[in-house]
Amino acid sequence: MPHVKVAAVHAAPVFLDRTATTAKAISIIREAARGGAQLIAFPETFIPAFPVWSGLWAPTENHDLFSLMANQSVSANGPEIAALRREAKALGVCVSMGISESSPASVGALWNSFIMIGPDGGILNHHRKLVPTFYEKLTWAPGDGAGLKVVETPVGRVGQLICGENTNPLARYALIAQAEQIHISSWPALWPTRPAGNGTNYNNVEANRIRSSAHSFEAKAFGMNTAGYMDSAMRKFLVDRDPKVADTLDRSSRAASFFVDPTGAPVGDFLQDDEGIAYAEFDLSRCVEPKQYHDVTGYYNRFDIFSLTVNRKRQHPITFVDDVEASSQNADDASFMEDNFSHAKP
């Protein structure tokens, strides 16, 4: 069982600019690799941004922002991901990147996704958030189960869920049951649920700590929490649009990036108020002993009473059947567009 060094990126995107944000991500990956990190995880939809505006204004006021988000979202096999794959291969590191993903079937359908890149530049996993949470539904479509996978990497068996998915016990169990050793949770910079002065806003730091510790305790796995950061440019963009939201932004709890061990206890760095990279070292042998106490996918369960079936088929909006030859070609093309490209070299 290896000792590994991991990095949780606590950073702001170049707000709604996919090209500049990709360049910033590459710079961060290089810094983290110089710091010895073997696995580098970025926040929820780091490229190009998290649509916090849906928690600030009515949807009738945000049409232009949705259009801009759609324009700046990225394809899973587009140039931004290709650039990240080249960098991961050049440095020999694993990279998990949160993206707002565009659809090959629609100019307006988006997903909240992550791409896990291996040290050879190959895509190990591509997950679309199962259910966008609360006002996120105004931006993203529901995903599917194709990405509910734990992947084998040089730093161990790694699984990941996005934000509120870490509250879904069945999604979490689906990863636990694949011998997960490291669990990545990705979060936005802030998540306002009430206007300033109208009650207490959602405390995402405490909520995320509870969820992360609970999952690691149940899985007997290490946990990485990587959260976005609201920099001055992002705040100015939102406040310039409507000065009344300044108080709501400033009173909303800032997310934190941190780590927990297989008992749910804190380990490694903790970042909240400053942009940067949090580091931790994991001794994966520590995932074994706690399994003696509770192994929920080994012996500490009743499989004769409970059962879980997970549909990991990628969902498609349409199937074309023209003739035998064309049908075969369409199948090859669709396969390439979805998962087979993940095994190609960058």
Automatic annotation (TrEMBL):
Q: Which domain of life is it from?
A: Bacteria
Annotated CN hydrolase domain ranges read 4-284
Give the PROSITE patterns listed for this entry. CN_HYDROLASE (PS50263)
What are the recorded GO MF terms, alphabetically?
catalytic activity
Q: Family, per the entry?
A: Belongs to the carbon-nitrogen hydrolase superfamily. Nitrilase family.
Q: What is this protein called?
A: Nitrilase
Organism of provenance: Afipia felis
